[in-house]
Specification:
single chain; 78 residues; rod-shaped; mainly alpha; 3 helices
Amino acid sequence: MSTLADLNDHLFAQLNRLSQDNMTSEQIEEEVSRTAAIVSVANQVTHNADLQLKAAKLYAEHGRGVLDMLPQIGKPKE
């Protein structure tokens, strides 16, 4: 299972790859392209985590009454 901590590790690993001094121009271009893809996915993951946190806060503040409006936390997946 991947976690936000794993995502953080991947981001720092990519940062380390980008800062290598011995890369050719082609390798730099490849790593920059890879970085753009990683950042795009990371943004979606963190956006999703933020939505989950907001749903949990809403539930914590308002109780079970909001569960019908939050089906992913209110009902098991079928």
